[in-house]
Amino acid sequence: MQPFFVLSFSEAFGNFTFEMNMFKSENFNEYYTEYPVGPIDIGTDIFLQVSVTSRDAGLVVFVDECKATPTSEYHDQMQFIFLEDGLVTIM
Fold this sequence. Notes:
Elements: E1 17-23, E2 47-53, E3 65-68, E4 80-84, E5 87-88
Antiparallel strand pairs: 1-2, 3-4, 4-5
């Protein structure tokens, strides 16, 4: 059976808390509290978790893109892309 996704788009107002953590191991027990983290060698596994907290129990997070740059500039020419179009990229 092939997986499938149902997307719906709507607009509303409310209070949402978005959170992203980088964990120290695949056990997801302890996350970093000071940033930036690194340096991290290319090819090293990283462990990220994103979540949203809201009164709307049906709200979910979809991560479309995730990347790292050596600076705080989003459009830095040097980029390491982990997720693109919601799919893991292999480095």
